[in-house]
Amino acid sequence: MDPKLHLHFLRIAEDAALACAPSIGHGDRKESDRLAVEAMRHAMKSVPMQGTIVIGEGERDEAPMLFIGEQVGLGGEKIDIAVDPLEGTNLCAENLPNAITVLAAAPEMGLLHAPDLYMEKLAVGPACKGQVNIEWSVERNLRAISKALNLPLNDIHITVLDRPRHQTLIESIRSTGAHINLISDGDLSGCILASLSGSGTHGVMGTGGAPEGVLAAAALKCLGGEIQGRLVTDHNTASRASAEKMGVDFNKTYFTDDLAPGSEIIFVASGVTSGDLVQGITHHGNSREVFSVLLSTGLKGLRHYQSTLSQDGIRTTIAL
Prior knowledge:
The chain has 320 residues and is α+β, with helices and mostly antiparallel strands. The protein has helices spanning 4-20, 29-44, 89-93, 138-149, 167-175, 187-193, 210-223, 240-245, 256-259, and strands at residues 50-55, 71-72, 78-87, 100-107, 118-124, 157-161, 179-183, 203-209, 226-232, 253-254, 266-271, 282-284, 287-296, 303-309, 315-319. The chain has 2 domains: 4-109 and 265-319, 2-Layer Sandwich (Fructose-1,6-Bisphosphatase, Chain A, domain 1), CATH 3.30.540.10; 118-259, D-Maltodextrin-Binding Protein, domain 2 (3-Layer(aba) Sandwich), CATH 3.40.190. The chain is 28% helix and 28% strand. The strands form 2 sheets. Strands 1, 2, 3, 4, 11, 12, 13, 14 and 15 form a 9-stranded mixed sheet that branches.
């Protein structure tokens, strides 16, 4: 991809974060999401690419914009785009930590086209890559993580979405002596944190959205981590028939390179509310600051950015 696209993608995520910031704490998750979607779509209009939304707000009949298959950009290089305009709509609406805006991009066919399904996931950092298997028991995987990290089991912390469906999983993890980080929303951030040394998270287990699984794969591929996933038939918005038409396989275990097969990938996340991954929107007089992280297969580690938007619309971006 043209390296200039990196800053375009950064601006798209930033614009979405800035747009939904006024809705923080107002309790209207749908309005927060609408603001982010509209801003992200508007920002894409000026990007020199022939973009196709492969992960979006849903299929055409369900989403008026940023729907799967929607064409975006001015034209040019063919790019697959995966977006979560507001990861953690509830977090934004209730002014809770870890609401972010997210975009991943790769040359054509570089990201799995995934409808609105649920996926059982196992995500780990670089040291545990190739050492775990979603087909194994919870205990076996935790012992493998413990061995790979050279940490006792009672020092291992696993992130799990706080959902009734995870009660058995939670009991299994705790029975080994490992700790659980329960989160209300946003397992994407948890997957990324599992690949960052010193984050306090050593892995993610449980069932969450398949689109977030693809976005996590894009980030983890840049960081050297690993995600494994299996599509499940329960809780889905999309029908199994429509999903299979898109080419997904309910009998397959998807690995990082299946979800994000592209050799060149970029991932950007901008903070809406402050969290473990990135700081949220801040106000200084008449200006606003937005903080972002950028990952790429061509870069080593996270790159942090801070952009300041003045009252007259002038944006200044610096790498931190």
